[in-house]
Amino acid sequence: MKYFLLTILLGGISFTGLAQAIEETLPPAFIKTVIFQGDSTENTGNPILRLGNRINLSFDDIIGDEADYYYTIEHYNFDWTPSQLSKNEYLEGFDNVRIMNFTNSLNTLQPYTHYELSIPNNNIKQLKVSGNYLLSVYNSNRELVFSRKFILYEPIAQVRAEIKRSRDLKYINEKQVVNFSINSPDLLLKNPDQNVKVSLVQNYNLKLALSDLKPQYTIANELIYRYDTESSFWGGNEFLQFDNKEIRVTTSDISSVELGDLYHHFLFLDFTRNSQSYTYNPDINGGFVVRNIQAQNSDVEADYVWIHFRLKNYDIIENGDIHLYGGFNNFELNKSTMLTYNEETGYYEGARLFKQGYYNYKYVLLNQDGSIDDGFISGNFDETENVYTIMVYYHPPGARYDRLIGVGSANSRNIRN
Questions:
Q1: Contact, 283 vs 238, CB < 8 A?
Q2: Based on the domain organization, do 125 and 64 belong to the same domain?
Q3: 398 with 296, same domain?
């Protein structure tokens, strides 16, 4: 009752500080290669797409027993607290139904069952409103297996952005700053300091999002954001890569191949890059693509391979752990991504199971306080090619949810002083 009265007194302004922000649930070890994307082949992990467009989820269960999985969809506010909408207000149809599209692997050493889900479908005709969503997958016992965030926007506001070097000379060679403006000629944004929220994301990684920036000034219907420190990101470095679309041969990335119960691919030795000069290396900003060059359908004919990583760091690290980092598991760190120091070789080593394909990865330091240092191994450079996404949320007076009214993007390859 107190919360209801407070909402009325605030005149419809979204106030969700009493609610807890939702976090994604990581898949268990037997769920592999979660791909969540729109109609494009670009795998962003947490897709951001226009309201009404199709969204696709696929994943593999390497137990391979054709287990039953079910899915639900929930709507959230800008800050990932639950919105006040009931399910029939944001969803036409019904969820909590079984994923019926699944196929067993074909001609693979590692058996698995491949599952696919597309929305809209026969059960969900459409998602009605823009904003933040969470798709959750459950097993037949209705136990949560994993969840992924996705975002739908309405093309109402126009977002223009450019990437600049930091004005702080201490970080001019290490940081990138996002300057942007929001123009909404067809929608009057009332009280933008309170009702307009923005979220800035680097390389589609929601875990790096910067938010709660207020417009510095307005010109007519245009909101201007020209911060320096508040909208800056570490530049990082280009991702490393490997491609094992051909499972039986070495490549420029793979030094040797062994066959046991499964294939083992040993990558060439990687080196710490934080003290080296920047070198441009084309990448896909942490993404990955599943493919088997000899398969007609890589979704079910690409095999699973143990990829062995070796990193040469010139000092033993005592205040944290070295991890693999990339979109292959939506930029999460866990036991499967951790490398251990081998005293005999002097290298940090680790192995992880990957489905055949092309992958971006890098090495990061996980500090004892839980923070991630992206530049400790790879370095930070203002020249690094990164893609930035700007999302604009608006909470109209009296509304019960946060609309996402516009999305813009910019690339740092055109960085300016």
A1: yes
A2: yes
A3: no
The token duo for 216 is 């510095």
231: left (phi over 0), alpha (psi -120 to 50) or beta: alpha
pLDDT reported for residue 43:
62
Q: How far is residue 284's CA from residue 360's CA, in Å, rounded to a whole number?
A: 7
| Six-digit token string for 329 | 């598991």
- Amino acid 185: pLDDT: 87
Low-confidence ranges of the chain (pLDDT < 50): 1-17
Residue 36 shares a structural domain with residue 98: yes
Contacts of 152 by beta carbon, 8 Å cutoff, 6+ apart: 49, 50, 51, 127, 129, 130, 131, 133, 404
255 and 313 share one domain: yes
Q: pTM for this one?
A: 0.91
**Alpha-carbon 76 to chain mean position:** 17
Q: How far apart are the first and last CA of the chain?
A: 52
CA distance 135 to 148: 5
Residues 222 and 250 reside in one and the same domain:
no
What pLDDT, on the 0 to 100 scale, is given for residue 155? 94
* Dist CA 55 CA 116 (whole Å): 11
Last residue of a domain, one of 97, 129, 153: 153
DSSP, res 337: G
Angstrom distance (rounded) from CA 98 to CA 117 = 10
Closest CA to 324 of 339, 313, 314, 306: 339
Range of the domain at 84: 2-153
What stretches of 239-370 adopt beta strand conformation (E)? 240-243, 254-259, 263-267, 270-271, 288-290, 304-312, 320-325, 338-342, 347-355, 357-367
Give dist(CA 381, CA 375) in Å, integer. Answer: 9
Phi, psi of 363 (to 5 degrees): -110, 135
Q: How far apart are CA 346 and CA 124, in angstroms?
A: 54
Tell me what pLDDT residue 314 has.
Answer: 81
Closest CA to 31 of 149, 135, 142, 115: 115
Taking the C-alpha atoms of residue 168 and residue 35, their distance in angstroms, rounded to an integer, is 39
